[in-house]
Batch of 2 targets.
Target 1
Amino acid sequence: MSLRFRTSTVVALAAAVALFASSCGDGHDASATPTASPDRPSSAGSSRAASSPSAGQPGPSASGAPSPSPTVSQDRKVPAPVLVEMVVTGGFAGRQEQLRVLEDGTYTTVNKGKTGPGGTVEASGLRSLRQALSSADFPNLPRRTINEQARDMIQYVVVHDHVTVMTDQSEPVAGLDRVISMLSPYLPGRSR
């Protein structure tokens, strides 16, 4: 293996590590982030940071090896991580709604594939939501409580702290029902 190929491989791996590190914890799916390869540099917003050092940071050495600590551009806005996400489907009307609440209280909605209204959960509401999520004990909730014989039931998929649970509320699920009722007013099909 030639020295040039090894050097470009090391640089590509360092860029991929920098992209992965910058995508961790920002609420986005890391698999959607383009990755670098030896023959194709990354097209992500942080590729500039991976290929050119920030002021005061050492760049690649004369041998072409990457600097010991890759930097991330300071001007890149990183959204708050997702606190909770809820997807509502089904019913006679064929609901397809999505709500995503970020840690900072901002929320976004999608209704039948189109961006819906968003906003910010009030501070007291956000505290109550955090308490409800904590009390629900997501790691110990049943993952699926669906009545397979019922038709046209509204189904709720709720994701919190990397745990996904699904219910049609055909039977009570302690803690989860409270979370669903707190999130429902923010759905795009509901008026606040």
Target 2
Amino acid sequence: MEQDSELQLLSNVHHALRLNSDASQRDLAQYTNLSLGMTNALLRRFADKGWLYMKKISKRNIQYMLTAQGIKELSARSKRYFKNTARLMNEYQSCIRRFAQKAADSGCTDLILVGDNDLEFLFDYACHFCKISFIKIDSNDFDIRQKYVTSRAFIVFSDEVQYEASVNLAQSEYKARCTSVMQIVENAG
């Protein structure tokens, strides 16, 4: 987690300096949404690691720039982060596709995703692949007692709390046809 936050901060500093090469420490603090003291500490840390060059322009002004080593580190960490994200997405895709196929094999014709989820496109793709309908419903508009909740639909909740509340309201025949995104992708980790 610290690696991710450090990557994000280094990336933010790099982006801010690309937008304004004369950015002050105060400007960088605003851009990174950190306090001035925290920004100062991070800039010094990056400089100590050789990722950032700090050139004193005057008594009160310092110019900052990423070093070649800093850009290399940013690139390497970004690559690792991307590879890890791609690996997780493949694992999630496999879990979601297995889930959709199992639902289709059990006679499901509709998969209803309730709420916003970053993995929505994987559910949509899996449904297309398994030849079942994909229906997205805003969590505020969903009611377990509505007509689209049928014995041929499987309901996947983005939010665990809404899942628990809906399962408690559902008739017994629908409880087995409800799950959450988290329960599906737990198999991927």
